[in-house]
Design a protein that fits this description.
By secondary structure, this protein is mainly α. The chain is built from ten helices and no strands. The radius of gyration is 29 Å and the shape is elongated.
Length: 242
């Protein structure tokens, strides 16, 4: 008898039992694959939204608003167009969420710096300025996206509303600190509002230079430049004396 046909001597019942075992294993494997696939498709809502937001930041920073399409975003996020429609009504809703993400991210960074600073007006002002150059928010991709949104704010008032929702508190903190420094250092010639606007412009101008000239001085150099500029406003308080 051929050795390859030895299983002909196996009782039918035994062969059926073996077949059931193999079939059961196959069904179990198929079920596990389906479960894994289902889990991949049903990631948490926050995860999918962040994927799309990060893809939008990437595309806007590379192409700007006019050339960015939902196809670019979905391809970068490796998600279907239907997923975008499920989480965001349209492209504008996605853009609103993207700007909100950037603004909240910046807010969380500067408030953390502020809370961790020494409890003096000068140290807290330095902390707010330094936060603008944190490695998480001060990247070429983030800055390009920020300026793209700012460029559209004139035509889309909602962008300014989203931005101010987070940034107004920062401006008010700087104004309050300037008022404290003027009183403490006896700087009678300093106008609080003008000084606050000037300090805000330091970071904005530095961000613009960092975006336009990526091969130039880095974020830490610009941070130090901004802190040095504070010595011209408040020479009795800056440079900081730890």
């Amino acid at each position: 008898m051929c050795s390859n046909c030895g299983d002909l001597n196996v009782p039918p019942a035994a062969r059926g039992s073996e077949g059931s075992t193999v079939g059961g294993a196959r069904r179990k494997l198929t079920m596990n694959v389906k479960i894994a696939s289902s889990r991949k498709r049903t990631a948490p809502k926050e995860t999918r939204q962040k994927q799309l937001i990060m893809a939008a930041i990437d595309s806007i920073s590379k192409r700007g608003f006019s050339d960015t399409t939902l196809r670019h975003v979905t391809e970068k996020a490796k998600l279907s167009h239907g997923v975008v429609n499920y989480h965001f009504k349209n492209k504008e809703a996605l853009y609103d969420a993207t700007l909100g993400y950037l603004a909240k991210e910046h807010y969380d960074i500067w408030t953390q710096y502020y809370d961790n600073a020494k409890p003096t007006a000068a140290h807290r002002l330095a902390a707010i300025i330094s936060a603008d150059f944190d490695k998480k928010v001060c990247t070429h991709k983030r800055l390009a996206a920020w300026f793209a949104f700012w460029g559209q704010a004139k035509y889309r008032p909602n962008y300014l509303k989203i931005h101010n929702q987070y940034d107004n508190e920062r401006y008010q903190k700087i104004a309050k600190i300037c008022n404290e420094l003027v009183a403490d250092g006896d700087y009678p010639d300093l106008d609080i509002e003008r000084t606050t606007r000037s300090i805000e412009a330091l970071s904005d101008g530095s961000w613009l230079c960092l975006m336009l000239y990526p091969g130039g001085p880095d974020r830490e150099v610009f941070r130090d430049d901004c802190l040095y500029a504070l010595t011209r406003f408040f020479p009795k308080h800056f440079p900081l004396k730890d």
